[in-house]
Specification:
- This protein is an all-beta fold.
- The protein has one domain (2-136): Immunoglobulin-like (Sandwich), CATH 2.60.40.
- Helices cover 0% and strands 51% of the residues.
- The chain is built from no helices and twelve strands.
- The strands form four sheets. The chain has a five-stranded mixed β-sheet with strand order 4-12-11-6-9, with no helix packed on it.
- A hairpin with a 2-residue loop joins strand 7 and strand 8.
- The radius of gyration is 17 Å and the shape is elongated.
- The termini are far apart.
C-alpha cells in the first residue's frame, strides 16, 4: 500500500476522485483557519477485500499528541475509520486500486510559530508517506 498526503483549505471525495481547494500548503495561521488532510491510498490487489483500520493524529514537533480543550473536556485531535477496497473492475492486472480520503477540520487553535505533523496509522503502523508536517506563522507583533 502506498500513501500520498496533502494539506488543503478544503476537500471532498466524489465518484472516487478527490476535489481539492487550496491544496499543497505547509504554512498557515497564525490565526485558526479551516483545513483538510487529503489522503490517496494505492492499494495492491492482494490487499483488496481486506478490512483496514486507519487513524490520523495531530502531533507537535516532539511527537506528542495535540490536546485541545473542548466542551466535553480535553481531547486529542484525531480521526479514525475503516476502509476496504473492493475487487477492481476494469483495472489491468497489477495496477493498484485508488482509494481517496478527505478529512476536513474546522479552525484549530494552534500555537503560532510552531511545527506540527499529521500522522496516519494504518493497521497499527505509519506507512511510508504517512506523515505530513506543517508550520504556523509567528504572531504579528502588536502595533503601537
Amino acid at each position: 500500500m502506498r500513501v500520498t498526503m496533502m494539506l488543503a483549505d478544503a476537500a471532498h471525495v466524489a465518484d472516487g476522485k478527490l476535489y481539492i481547494l487550496g491544496g499543497g500548503w505547509s504554512l498557515t495561521g497564525p490565526e485558526p483557519t479551516p483545513s483538510a488532510v487529503v489522503v490517496k491510498l494505492e492499494i495492491d490487489r492482494h490487499e483488496t477485500g481486506v478490512s483496514h483500520h486507519w487513524e490520523l493524529f495531530l502531533e507537535d514537533a516532539d511527537g506528542q499528541l495535540i490536546v485541545l480543550d473542548t466542551p466535553e473536556g480535553p481531547q486529542t485531535v484525531e480521526v479514525r475509520g475503516e476502509f476496504e477496497a473492493g475487487e477492481p473492475i476494469g483495472i489491468p492486472e497489477g495496477a493498484p486500486v485508488d482509494l481517496p480520503i478527505a478529512i476536513n477540520f474546522g479552525p484549530l487553535p494552534l500555537l503560532p510559530g510552531a511545527r506540527y505533523t499529521w500522522r496516519l496509522v494504518i493497521d497499527g503502523t505509519t506507512p511510508s508517506g504517512g506523515a505530513l508536517s506543517f508550520s504556523t506563522r509567528s504572531a504579528a507583533p502588536d502595533s503601537l
